[in-house]
Design goal:
This protein has 40 helices and 26 strands. The chain is α/β, with parallel strands linked by helices. Among the domains are: about 240 residues, P-loop containing nucleotide triphosphate hydrolases (Rossmann fold, 3-Layer(aba) Sandwich), CATH 3.40.50; about 110 residues, PCRA, domain 4 (Orthogonal Bundle); about 160 residues, Alpha-Beta Complex (Lambda Exonuclease, Chain A), CATH 3.90.320. The strands form 7 sheets. It has a 7-stranded parallel sheet with strand order 1-7-2-6-5-3-4, sandwiched between helices. A 6-stranded parallel sheet has the order 10-21-18-15-17-16, with helices on both faces. Strands 22-23-24-25-26 form a 5-stranded mixed sheet. Helix 3 packs across helix 5 and helix 7 packs across helix 16. The chain is globular and about 105 Å long. It starts with a strand and ends with a strand.
Length: about 1100
């Protein structure tokens, strides 16, 4: 049981204590205050060891300590007295303590060594350095920076080696797994196995044959006979076959559905055993389960007294099928584990050997080796003496994120210290409600186990505090009902000083009309073929897989939510809501908003809408730099310098803004006229000496030649610096891109330059090595560099994952839900590890969710409970980032968090807006944000500002999509973007009716013309792109159809339409005349109501 926080006891330097502190209650304040109390009580700075989980948190603690020490040294006595009184120093002791308090700053800064404030991994690495040489540990080994890259290399090498030796145990296991689960699932399984290597080592510690030991522990849990064929045994049983016959005959007398199943069940008797079993499972069971209704009324009425016999037969047969399924599941579990454990163990060994050869270790190695060292009978006593001689006071931060292995190492040391009775104190702070790192092996239950251990060994009382200094009263009132039913949650209260702080809550459900699932052809929505009565032709558009990706089912809801997100921020929040800043209100700025997502999957959609709304933002999306066009240009330039015969790279560079060459320039370089057959680099070198050499090519030849001479003499960063300066890259890109793209492009160029220094500590001095490193980074999402920061972090919306926002806060927090839903894990490791146990109680592999087996059900249920608790914790962490305003949005039907929050807030009656302020924010200079440049030939319209124009744009897109040969458009996404989700079906239906009108079939029925083009893109004499809606070619003529789908066009006469659009179509006809010489050209306007207005032919 915990007690209310009593700072007099918790901060007492003579006592150990455990504090469970809610979000925003001041955990850092408690930790640093405890450090100050220890120093004031006479503890030497070197005796303090504070351990947290991130370097950022460690630096924050150090900065706070130095800040307070300066306050004690420089402020007046009254201020210092108040400061000490706030930290529970008794009034009677403050006077005598003042001289020491004044001198603490000098004492701490001059101490050698000073207080140790580090991370868990930093401490483990330090322990390895203190280990005796006889322990054989990797003393001083650097940390592996690219774990996933090395692991992938090792995995691929091992898979190739095993595949080449099928006669070995590993080769046979590989072939068996490839046949059973496929390559993709095998890679997933191997990844999860290596990630659980600490659990594997702990589970098999001390075993001569780890694989055999793990299998020996698994085998008793499974069916006794895994070698026989249960399906063959099932059908070899005469009573079972007779039972199947009787059930089939009985079903013939039932309802229509039962009669339909009867012949299939009877037919199974003539099939081979495996096929017969599949047929019986399909027609007797439902998805492997018993049917809810055993017999219909018709069947009950017909069978009469025979009904009981039928039901007994059915129950017996279903029980036999369930038993058979369970046996098959156990067989698959056994095969997966006997092959998977062997390959996984061999893969871990190969991975460890690869690290040993490189002389590096990773964090898991540090944890495991430190734990073994502290538990070693030979070396632990000497190490404990070193630790006890150095440290007397241990402070632990964020302890809810500790994993069992870390706690095992720490508890071993603490038990030794307690036994030595050296007067050590321990102060532990954490919050199990904020444990959200199970994917990193964090275990929230460790906090309770540690609290019990500290109470038993160090007489540490357990305190709890539920008063938050961060949240406004309205936010506290909103959070309490959301978690009222969660075990361990106590209602929060707000700090007295926040009583008058305004707050706001909004729940913004996103509702999108249901649409049928995408067709097999992958079109964005259901498409009905168009029938042309005259020819009998039926045409249906097909998706082009090269240009149109398979649609995502959730995209429509996320698109709608993203539009709502940007619109509400722009129109209702920024510069309108008043947020508190230093005790006084001011208008909300973008930097006051933190937007949180559970996963990064749809971040790009939210970014796109923020860009469209001209709202600056900083995003946590990973790995975008190397995919940016400007970065790809620079990479191509470096490859050109390294590979003189890479003509495609040279053409890329010449066409890029670095040199800005025209198509004619490229033809002179790569398509020379006879008799000169040279091309590429060689041709470029000769052109520079010709009098008619274009200036762009002369500049390119001069600079490329100069830079190429420095490739082997300058480090990559110095070479890039010369290229940027001599090529004037930033200025040339600034001139070449639209205003909105300039800051992001410039930031990306600078980020690429920085990459040459920061990537792997600059250990790729050669150009070839750097390019190889970039190639390995492109597809590594975890290690790939992000785009440069183009926005001011102080005045930009922060788009973060919930995990990335841990420890942060903002006046306004928006929890974006999209339509994300968590999928169950498959092909992974089950390794339940109670925090008080020295090792996992079980270790096995599992495949698909339906093949986990009854023998492990209790562990899976426990894991499901822990996963649900972590989901609750994620929601808690997200909501408690908000100081004043909290907004939650998402798909109303799929987002469980939104449903839960909406239900809890329904009757609270709290305000939806923060009070407006008359103090306006300083006009912010909106930095142009990154946008996606449209592809050549893509229609780019002006922003739609009214419903009529939006309807016209969508109608036009429907015509493009459906008119043969079809230009695939994601109509659902476009409708969402235009705010016309509810009208898509009507507009699309109208477009289809128009295309099928009898007087227009000659333009749209493929049977009546030679060929047709939608959105034909031509270049006019001024170098401008012209897009023609539809061009139809016949044997004796060509027709140009221009769609005019706006409502205003319907009110104009034919003459008025010809006057308005005649000049435009005349220009189009002039372009077509050059493509179709000698053929009559006709032009016509097609209106949405089907009216065809033909202009004069030429």
């Amino acid at each position: 049981m915990s007690e209310p926080l009593d700072n007099a006891i918790a901060l007492s330097p003579a006592r150990s204590a455990v504090v469970e502190a809610c979000a925003g209650s001041g955990k850092t304040w408690l930790l640093v205050s405890r450090m100050l109390r220890l120093l004031l009580a006479g503890a030497a700075p070197s005796e303090l060891l504070a351990i947290t989980f991130t370097r950022k948190a460690a630096q924050e603690m150090t900065d706070r300590l130095h800040e307070w020490l300066r306050l004690l040294a420089l402020e007046d006595d009254a201020t210092v007295r108040a400061f000490l009184r706030a930290r529970a120093v008794p009034d009677a002791e403050i006077g005598a303590m003042l001289p020491r308090a004044r001198g603490l700053l000098e004492a701490v800064l001059a101490a050698q060594p000073g207080p140790t404030v580090t991370t868990f991994h930093g401490w483990f690495l330090d322990l390895l350095k203190r280990a005796p040489l006889e322990a054989g540990l990797p003393w001083g080994a650097p940390l592996l920076e690219r774990e996933s890259q090395l692991l992938n290399e090792v995995r691929d090498r091992q898979l190739n080696r095993w595949a080449a030796t099928p006669d070995t145990a590993e080769g046979a296991a590989l072939l068996a797994l490839l046949a059973d689960i496929g390559e993709h699932n095998l890679r997933t399984l191997s990844k999860h196995f290596v990630q659980a290597r600490a659990e594997w080592w702990a589970y098999t510690n001390g075993q001569a044959d780890p694989v055999a030991y793990a299998l020996s522990q698994l085998r008793p849990l499974l069916h006794p006979d895994l070698d026989s064929d249960p399906v063959a045994a099932f059908w070899a049983d005469e009573s079972t076959v007779a039972r199947v016959k009787r059930i089939g005959l009985a079903l013939e007398k039932g309802s229509k559905s039962e009669q339909a199943r009867a012949p299939e069940i009877q037919r199974s008797l003539d099939l081979p055993p495996d096929d017969a079993h599949a047929a019986l499972m399909k027609h007797l069971m439902t998805a492997g389960k018993r049917r809810k209704k055993q017999a219909t009324r018709e069947l009950e009425k017909v069978l009469g007294v025979e009904l009981d016999t039928y039901l007994r037969d059915l129950d017996t047969l279903e029980t036999a099928l369930e038993t058979l399924t369970a046996i098959q599941t156990d067989i698959r579990i056994w095969n997966l584990n006997r092959h998977g454990l062997r390959l996984g163990h061999a893969l871990i060994a190969a991975y460890q050997e690869a690290k040993s050869q490189q002389g590096v270790i990773d964090f898991t190695d540090a944890e495991w080796q430190a734990c073994r060292l502290l538990a070693s009978e030979e070396h632990a006593p000497a190490l404990a003496l070193k630790l006890d001689a150095r440290y007397r006071h241990l402070l632990l931060d964020e302890f809810q994120d500790t994993n069992p292995l870390q706690w095992q190492a720490l508890s071993t040391w603490l038990a030794e210290a307690h036994g030595a009775d050296n007067g050590m104190t321990v102060f532990m702070v954490g919050d199990p409600k904020q444990a959200i790192y199970r994917f990193r092996r964090g275990e929230a239950r460790v906090f309770n186990a540690a609290a019990e251990f500290l109470h038993a060994h160090f007489d540490a009382p357990r305190f709890s505090t539920d008063m938050t200094r961060r949240l406004a009263p309205s936010v506290v009132a909103a959070i309490n009902p959301v978690f009222a039913d969660v075990a361990g949650f106590a209602a929060h209260t707000h700090a007295p000083e926040n009583a008058d702080r305004p707050g706001a809550l909004r729940s913004l459900p996103v509702q999108v009309e249901k649409t049928e699932a995408a067709m097999a052809d992958g079109l964005p929505h259901t498409v009905t073929p168009i029938h042309y009565a005259a020819s009998g032709h039926v045409w249906s558009p097909m998706r082009n897989p090269l240009t149109t990706p398979q649609p995502e089912a959730d995209d429509r809801a996320v698109h709608a939510e993203a539009r709502q997100f940007a619109r509400v921020l722009r129109d209702e929040v920024l510069d309108r809501w008043g947020v508190m800043d230093g005790g006084s209100p001011r208008a909300a700025r973008p930097g006051d908003v933190m937007a949180l997502v559970r996963k990064r999957t749809h971040l790009h959609l939210y970014e796109r809408e923020l860009e469209a709304a001209r709202i600056p933002f900083i995003t946590s999306r990973r790995g975008g730099l190397l995919h940016a066009l400007e970065a790809r240009d620079v990479i191509a330039l470096l490859e050109t310098l390294l590979l003189p015969h890479a003509d495609l790279k040279l053409a890329h560079v010449l066409k890029s803004p670095v040199f800005g060459c025209s198509d004619e320039d490229l033809l002179r370089v790569f398509a020379p006229q006879p008799p000169d057959e040279t091309r590429g680099w060689e041709r470029l070198a000769t052109l520079i000496h010709q009098t008619d050499c274009p200036p762009t090519l002369a500049r390119a030849a001069s600079l490329l030649g100069r830079w190429r001479t420095h490739c082997g003499t300058l480090p990559v960063h110095d070479l890039l610096d010369r290229i940027y300066f001599e090529g004037d890259l930033e200025a040339r890109y600034t001139a070449a891109v639209p205003d909105a793209m300039r800051p992001q492009v410039a930031a990306n160029l600078r980020a690429f330059m920085q990459l040459a220094l920061t990537q792997d500590a600059g250990r790729y001095p050669t150009l070839a090595g750097f390019i190889r490193e970039l190639a390995s980074l492109v597809d590594d999402a975890d290690a790939a560099p992000g785009e440069g920061l183009a926005a001011d972090g102080e005045n930009a919306v922060h788009l973060l994952t919930i995990h990335g926002a841990k420890g942060l806060e903002a006046p306004i927090v928006w929890l974006l839900g999209g339509s994300d839903h968590q999928k169950g894990t498959s092909y992974a490791v089950l390794a339940p590890w109670p925090p008080e146990a020295p090792q996992p109680v079980h270790f096995s592999l599992f495949g698909r969710q339906e093949e986990r087996g009854a023998c492990r059900e209790a562990w899976f249920e426990e894991e499901a409970g822990l996963a649900q608790r972590e989901s609750d914790n994620l929601l808690y962490v997200a909501l408690t980032r908000a100081e004043q305003a909290l907004i939650v949005s998402g798909d109303v039907e799929k987002n469980a968090w939104l449903q839960r929050v909406d239900a809890a807030w329904r009757n609270l009656g709290l305000p939806a807006d923060l009070p407006p302020t008359t103090i306006r924010a300083v006009d912010r200079l909106l930095p142009p944000t990154r946008i996606d440049a449209p592809a050549i030939g893509q229609r780019v319209g002006t922003p739609v500002t009214n419903p009529a124009a939006a309807s016209g744009e969508l109608f036009h897109a429907c015509l493009e999509h459906h008119a043969p040969p079809g230009t695939p458009r994601d109509l659902a996404a476009l409708a969402t973007h235009l705010g016309l989700e509810n009208r898509l079906d009507v507009i699309e239906s109208t477009a289809r009716v128009l295309l099928a009108k009898p007087h227009l079939t000659r333009f749209f029925d493929p049977a009546q013309y030679r060929r047709a083009y939608n959105e034909l893109t031509l270049l006019d004499g001024h170098g401008r792109l012209q897009r023609l809606d539809r061009v139809v070619e016949y044997d004796d003529s060509v027709w140009l159809i221009d769609y005019k789908t706006g409502d205003d066009s319907r009110t104009l006469s034919d003459t008025e339409l010809a006057e308005r659009h005649g000049t435009q179509l005349a220009g189009y006809r002039t372009l077509l005349a050059e493509l179709y010489p000698g053929k009559p050209l006709h032009a016509a306007l097609l209106l949405a109501d089907g009216r065809l207005v033909e202009l004069n032919s030429i």
